Amino acid sequence: MAEVVDGEVRLSTPDATLDRARALFRKYVPAGSSVVDEVIADRRAEDAEDGSAGESDRGEP
Q1: Residue ranges per domain, the chain?
Q2: Percent of the chain's residues with pLDDT above 70
């Protein structure tokens, strides 16, 4: 990754960039929680509210 900081171009390796991203997410996602599981649960709840459980408007079976 390349970024400009104080007029300097700074390059980071992919591993360093991934480490920074992970550290950023750790601030907002509590340890032991699964964002994926939360998203899936939210989608299922929305489908149930719409009365379309088992059906999908997204073209999925």
Answers
A1: 2-50
A2: 84
